[in-house]
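Structure, all two chains, one model.
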Amino acid sequence: MATFKDFRNSVKPNWCPGCGDFSVQAAIQRAAANVGIEPHELAVVAGIGCSGRIAGYINSYGFHGIHGRALPIAQGLKMANRDLNVIASGGDGDGFAIGMAHTVHAIRRNIDVTYVVMDNQIYGLTKGQTSPRSAQGFVTKSTPGGAIEPSLKPLEVALSAGATFVAQGFSTDIKELTALIEAGIQHKGFSFINVFSPCVTYNKVNTYEWFKEHLTKLADIEGYDPQNRELAMQTVMQKEGLVTGIIYQDLETKSYQEKIPGFAEQPLADLDMNLSENQFNELVKEFM
Amino acid sequence: MLHQLSWKVGGQQGEGIESTGEIFSMAMNRLGYHLYGYRHFSSRIKGGHTNNKITVRPTEVRSIADDLDILVAFDQETIEVNYKELTEKSIILADTKFKPVEPEDSKAPLFIVPFTEIATELGTSLMKNMVAIGATAALLNLKTSVFQSVVDEIFGRKGEEVVKKNMEAIQQGYNMMCELLGDRVGEWELAPADGKRRMFMIGNDAIALGAIAAGSRFMSAYPITPASEIMEYLIKKLPKLRGAVIQTEDEIAAATMAIGANFGGVRAFTASAGPGLSLMMEAIGLSGMTEQPLVIVDTQRGGPSTGLPTKQEQSDLMAMFYGTHGEIPKVVIAPSTLEEAFYDTIQAFNIAEELQLPVIIMTDLQLSLGKQTTDPFDYSKIQIRRGKMVEEELEPVENKDYFKRYLNTEDGVSTRVFPGTANGIHHVTGVEHDETGKPSESAGNREVQMDKRFRKLESLNFETPVYLNAPHDDADVLLVGFNSTRGALEEVQERLNNEGLKVNHAHVRLLFPFPSEEMATQLERAKKVIVVENNKTSQLANIMKMNIGGHNKTSSITKYDGTPFLPRELENKVKELLD
C-alpha cells in the first residue's frame, strides 16, 4: 500500500519559504495515503496562481489548467472516470473571484470531487493585489486606500448553495487538515475545504500568529453537530468564519453521478463506444 | 403538374405554425418527396411573426425556392410580410377570423377560408392548423388519407378520439377548399415522387446523431440559439447509452468540462454559437496547448454581440480561424449538407483524438435549423479512430519519472495515457512544458514543443476538403462558398451553365488548415472568382487571398441582412459581376 512518500515527486516547489501551501501539499499527500489509494488512482486538477502549481508537486496525475477553471475540468474528469479520486485545488482568487460561478455550481451539482482552496486573502503571484477574501480596509497595491468591498464569506456561500460537505482548516495544523481532506475524499459528493494558507510575502495582516489568535476549533465547541445545517450557519456567522473542522456534512444526499438515470457504473471511458447496427438503425428510423 | 412546390405557413409565434409545417412536411416525406424547410422566427417565446417555408420536389432539393406557390396565413402580417414572393400562379389561403385584406399589388388571388370556425365547431380552435392542411391537400390533389399515419403518430398518445377529430378537421378543410376552388382543385398537383422514405431532420440532429455514432458519451453545454437542439437530442439519447449531458453554468464551464472529460478518456464535446464561442476562446487555447482533444460545434448566427440571434449569418470565420491568444494548431471544418454534418462530426472526433487538438465544426443557422430530407446514413461508413493511446500495461518507472506524454515524435503526435493507468503518471499544463509535461521556459524547449504541436497538422487526414463540381478547365467563373449556401450555389451554377456560361463551383469544407493546393488549382482554371458569403467583410474571400492570392480576379457577393441567399437573387448578382 502506498505511503505519503509515494505521493511525493522530485519537483521542487517554487513557493516562498514559509508559504502555507507547503503544508496543504503535505496534508493532501498524507490524506491520499491514509485513504489507501495508489498515486495513479489520484488526479489533482489545479487553477492558476501560486497554489495552482500544486498539481505538479504531487506524484499523481496532474492537470494545471486555466485561471478559475479547475472545477469544471475536475468535474469533467470525474464524469469520464468515476473510479478516479479527483482533487481540485486553487487559491481564493481562482475559486472566489474569476471562478466563483463554478464554485457555487459545483457545490450545487455535487459531483464527487474534493475541492481544496488555499485561502491567503491576497493575490500573491501577481505581486500583491486585493482578493475577494481581503478584509475591508486591507491595503494592497490595488487598494492603496484600503479595500472598499467587504470580504466574501465562502463558508456561508457554500452552505447556502446546498453544500453536502463544508470544512475549513489551517495550514499549520497538518494533523487536523489531513483528517479534513481524508473525510472530504471519503465523502460521497462534492466536498468543499477552505484552508487558511498564509502568504508570508504579501499579507502582513493575516499571518500565522493572527490566525492562531483568532481561530476556534469546532471540536472545542460543546455540542457542535456537523450534521445540523442551521447550527453550522449560525456558528459560522457568530465566529465570522474563523473556525476549523468539519462545519457541515450531509450523509444522506447522493452524489450527482448516483442520481443520473442509467449512468454507467463503470467509468464512461471504459464503455464500448460503438453502436450496434441495430441501435444505429433504430436512431435513424426515428427521423423517417 | 408542378416539378417543385413552395408552400409557406405563417402566423404569430406560439400558435402552432411550426407544427402545421411539421405535419405537412412529414406527410410529404412519407410520399417520397424531397424537402427543404426554413423557419423565420424571433427571439421571443410567444408573439411576433413566424413562418415556415417548405420547398417540395420529387428530386433532390438543397435550397429555398425563389417564389412561393401557396401561402397559408393565420394573420394579416403573414400576408404583408410574404406576398411579394407570390406570382400569378400562386394562391393565398387566409383564415376568415382575422378579416384578411388583399394587398393592392398582390399577384395572387386571396381565398378566405374559415379555418378557425371549422375547427371550433369540431371542438377546439387549436385544430385550425389541421383544417389548413386539409385545404392544402385539395390544392395539391392529395387524398386526406396520406395524413393518417402522421396524425396517428403525433396524436396517438392522446387517444383515438383526438386522432379522429384531427382527421375530421383535415377532411372538412379539404371539402371546404374544394367548394371554394371549383375547377381549380388540384391545380398545384406535384409530379409523383418515388415513394422512398428518407430521413427528415435539421442539421443539428445530424450533428447530434454523428456525435453518438462517433462514440461520444458525454456532453457539457449551455443553451443558446441555434445550437440547443444538439444538447437536447443528447439529453434524450445519452442516458440510454449510459452516458450523460451536463447543462453547465456557462460556456467556459462547458468547454473546460469537455476538456477534463477528454483527459479522462471519454469522447466529450460541446456546442454553442457566437457568444458562447467567444467565451470558450481561452479553453480552446488550453486544449491546443495541453494537446487534449476537444470537439466544439459553432452554429453561426447573426452577430456581433447578441446581434441577430435567430437569423442566418456566416460571420464567425475569422474568429474560428484566429480566436484564442497565442498560436495553436486547430482544425475548422464546415459541412454544407446533412450528410456532411453527420459524417464530418464523426471525422471531427477522430481528428481531435488522432491529432490531439481542438476541432471546430462550424455550421450556420440555415444548416443547423433548416429541416431537410436526406438518404438514411450508412452504418458501414462509421469509423472510430482514436490515434496513439497506451494499450498495454506500462513498465514500472524509476525515480517517479513522469510518462513522456509530450514526447517529441516525428509526426508530432505523442501517445496518450489516461488517468487511472498504473505507471502512466504525468503532468498536464497550459504553461509551456517539456516532454514530461513539467513547466519549462527554456528557449530551446519552447521551439521543440511549438514545432511538435504544429507538425501534427501535416498528418491531418480529412476526406474531401473541398466539394467540387468543376467541369470546366477554362471556366468563366468559379463560384465559392461554405456551409448552407451550397444549394443556392448549385442551382445558380446549373442555371448559368444551361445558359451557355462555363461555371465551376467549389464549396470549402475544410476551412483550417486552408486547402490551398486544391483551391489554387481551381483558381487557375477560372477567369474570375466570386466568393459568396453571409457576412459584411468578405471573410472567406480574404482568407482565400491570404492563402492563394488571386486578388485581381476575386470579387465578393455578401449578404448580412439576416436572410439566406435565394437562387435568383444570387444568379442576378453573379450576372452583374460578369457583365
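Chain B has a mean pLDDT of 96.
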